[in-house]
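Recap from last week: sequence in, structure out.
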Amino acid sequence: MAGNTGMAGDTGMTSNTGANQNEDYGDKGLDFLEKKSGHTLNRNTNEKITDGARNQFEKMTG
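Predicted structure tokens:
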């Protein structure tokens, strides 16, 4: 059973690392602005904001 617990812990760590690797410059920029302004938003909210901004940018630039 100890082996199963270790595997679950490893999976959690892999998920966190994977989430950090999926951040693009828009996500990192929003994180920077949050830190400078003293506000903190949920990760899902950040993704919605940056995805919406990216979609608008792509519409404008083609």
